[in-house]
TrEMBL record:
<dbReference type="InterPro" id="IPR003810">
    <property type="entry name" value="Mntp/YtaF"/>
</dbReference>
<comment type="function">
    <text>Probably functions as a manganese efflux pump.</text>
</comment>
<feature type="transmembrane region" description="Helical">
    <location>
        <begin position="52"/>
        <end position="80"/>
    </location>
</feature>
<dbReference type="InterPro" id="IPR022929">
    <property type="entry name" value="Put_MntP"/>
</dbReference>
<keyword id="KW-1003">Cell membrane</keyword>
<feature type="transmembrane region" description="Helical">
    <location>
        <begin position="164"/>
        <end position="186"/>
    </location>
</feature>
<keyword id="KW-0472">Membrane</keyword>
<keyword id="KW-1133">Transmembrane helix</keyword>
<protein>
    <recommendedName>
        <fullName>Putative manganese efflux pump MntP</fullName>
    </recommendedName>
</protein>
<dbReference type="GO" id="GO:0005886">
    <property type="term" value="C:plasma membrane"/>
</dbReference>
<keyword id="KW-0406">Ion transport</keyword>
<dbReference type="Pfam" id="PF02659">
    <property type="entry name" value="Mntp"/>
</dbReference>
<dbReference type="GO" id="GO:0005384">
    <property type="term" value="F:manganese ion transmembrane transporter activity"/>
</dbReference>
<keyword id="KW-0464">Manganese</keyword>
<keyword id="KW-0813">Transport</keyword>
<feature type="transmembrane region" description="Helical">
    <location>
        <begin position="101"/>
        <end position="126"/>
    </location>
</feature>
<feature type="transmembrane region" description="Helical">
    <location>
        <begin position="132"/>
        <end position="152"/>
    </location>
</feature>
Amino acid sequence: MDYISLIFLSCALAMDAFAVSLCKGFSVKKLNLKHYFIVGIYFGGFQALMPAFGYIIGISFASFVASIDHWIAFILLGLIGLKMIKESFEGENCDTNANQFGFKIMLALAIATSIDALAVGVSFAFLDVNLLVSILLIGLITFLFCALALKIGNQFGVFLKNKAEFLGGAVLIVLGIKILIEHLFFNS
């Protein structure tokens, strides 16, 4: 996977955490540096760790599915993208836990927003991906997006939440199609 695709993938994966961070920013009267680090480390950390776990799972059965690996990546990215687009139309508001930054709440939110990254990690096992660079980029971009979302949510509210989820889903679908087309038509 080239670096441009990896950056787009990282941005798309960050969109769920971005949306949650918007809610958190909206719910806090006064942000301080601690809030930025909490959302950035939890969300960025889990977004970086989950693809590594997914890669380990995927690599364990990669030899069995080598002939259809491009289809698996296409289907996983497409399904995740469709799920994100569907969620963008659900119009849910920020929940009552938005103003809470404690361990249990943040851990649950970090895991929930990074499940997609686990599935993407499975597809990494079938692609030509530098895993270390990938997880560092995913984690860093998610950290930065969440810090930015916290500030935006605090200043302007959460009107961008659904648009971010829709955009993230669309990017994942496009990347899945790109992988499939490259393998079917441009691999020798």
